[in-house]
Write a structure and sequence with these properties.
Elements: E1 2-4, H1 6-9, E2 20-25, H2 35-50, E3 55-60, H3 71-82, H4 88-106, E4 109-115, H5 123-132, E5 139-142, E6 146-149, E7 155-162, H6 178-188, E8 193-200, H7 209-226
Parallel strand pairs: 2-3, 2-4, 4-7, 7-8
Antiparallel strand pairs: 1-3, 5-6
Helix pairs in contact: 2-7, 3-4
Length: about 230
């Protein structure tokens, strides 16, 4: 489920841990079959070369237990607030969701990687987003002000691949709902720095697919150095 990428990309040159990076991937395929995963791998490799002392944790959402926000979860939360005992199913799901959000809060930086499916991201990423948007953990409600994000010291990067051209400024940008939603969520949680790498046009300009991926890899390598 979770693996240390240093084991994949090489050992750290330093021993002192400085920051923790959560590498969150939402693709069923690996980097050999996925453009977004290939660019993500390039980003992480470059990042570890530039920040050898940091810790990078890979969270593969397709291999991660993410409970749905179902009746057990809502009943469990209600019972916790009322000081009542939870059923085994309620406790298991509530505890797991708490583990997920605690891991997210503990990280200093986030790298999200996903393909574009039907103008958005895979459902597993939405389930993950639902699990990290927790009042009192990642945001809070302030009287006369509304919700305020609590992750104001974090930063994030989003790597997204698509068959069409969907990035801001493109003709079909208004149809894109994956990056735009994640951008809203990062703002909602108070994350002040959120950058994007779009690997787009892989199908619309299939004859240029390799060049598109190579260009995104170059951008990933450069952005990783200053991330």
């Amino acid at each position: 489920m979770i693996q240390f990428l240093k084991k994949v990309f090489g050992s750290s040159k330093g021993n002192d841990r400085k920051e923790k990076v959560l590498y969150i991937t939402a693709h069923p395929n690996n980097q050999d079959a996925s453009a977004s995963m290939a660019v993500g791998a390039e980003f992480i490799e470059s990042y570890l070369q530039s920040h050898p002392q940091d810790e990078v944790i890979h969270l593969d959402l397709y291999k991660t237990d993410i409970p749905d926000l179902d009746a057990d979860v809502f009943n469990g939360w209600g019972k916790l607030a009322a000081g009542e005992d939870l059923t085994h199913a309620e406790k298991a799901k509530v505890d797991r969701l708490n583990e997920i959000v605690e891991q997210f809060v503990a990280a200093d930086k986030y790298v999200f990687v996903n393909p574009t499916w039907n103008f958005s991201y895979p459902p597993v990423l939405k389930a993950y987003i639902d699990s990290i948007c927790v009042a009192g953990k990642t945001f809070k409600y302030v009287p006369d002000k509304g919700p305020v994000g609590l992750l104001d010291l974090k930063k994030a990067v989003h790597i997204q691949a698509s068959g069409s051209f969907l990035s801001p400024g493109s003709e079909m940008a208004s149809l894109e709902m994956g990056h735009r939603h994640l951008d809203i969520i990062m703002k909602f949680l108070g994350v002040p720095s959120f950058e994007a790498i779009f690997v787009e046009g892989m199908a619309a300009a299939s004859d240029q697919a390799q060049a598109i991926k190579d260009k995104a890899k170059r951008k990933a390598r450069e952005l990783a150095k200053s991330f």
